[in-house]
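Figure 2 data, in text form.
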Amino acid sequence: MSAQYDRAKEELTAGTRYEEYRPLVPFLGMMILGILADRFFWSPQEFETSISGTAWGWFVLHVLCLTAAFVCLRQKRALRKNRRWETECMDGVGGASSQNDGVSGTYFRKADVLGVTFAKSGEEDRVLGSLRERETVSFFCAGLIRFFRGLKERMVPLFLLLSFSAVGGLFHHLYWNFYPETEIGLNAGDPFSLECVQGKIVRPPEFAFPSRTASFLGNENEMTTQLCLKVLKRKSGTKWVPATGNLLVRVMGRMEDAHVGDVFQMSGRMSHFSETMNPRAFSARTFYRQQRILAVLRVPSEKNPQLVSRPRIWGVFRIVEWLRDSASV
């Protein structure tokens, strides 16, 4: 039977064109729209150390949209329960009246159940009181239910799309603007400040020659080591204080014994990235800010960094670095 059913199903669906529905595509599109809206309209260039009103606005919009979608989904179920409750009450009251009066087939109209008219029995009065109480409670939601009743099918997707847009705007605002007070990049001075930090290398070191402008300084053949350092603490006076954030480190010279996961202590001049004069040109400040790197630390010599500790077990990036170095030999 199953084989015959499958064959019949194949014959029935032969030549049928199916359209694949991908609900994540519009949701991701609305998230991107929220990110762009926050980037160009509500995201300032300065940094924030506390959650701003714009972020709270995105969060409130997300909660309101989810609540409205939930109400739209629940209202149809509530209407079904209300109709079922009325039917059960009419059947129960009609049966009680027939038993008390000895008359079979006695029933009440819907207006009787809702409290317009009722019979003489005390049992019926008690049921009527309970019905009035339940009707009073449901009266306040009746207007909202009637309003969303005809718009349910169209309003639920709209509210869900708006909620995803709010999630995208909230994510971008927190990622682009919000930094804790211990962020190392907030301590960069103008034009620079002297800093001594201790942190862990999170990316494989990169080696490059300086730009053409460095040839005027006579060090065109000197190599530069570029590191991405996850700062653990910084020196403030004579004591170490906790610090967070990533820091781009440029060391003059080649650091041979520096790998991902190593903890180094180094000092140098820390400054913000230079801002471009041409608005359409490449901006190093915007490029590194997208990676949540706010400042660069320039170390004058490769002998300045001091190794503090080294992990016993290799991580994923350390294995990638080893594969890169072994493949280049």
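Caption note: The longest strand covers residues 224-236.
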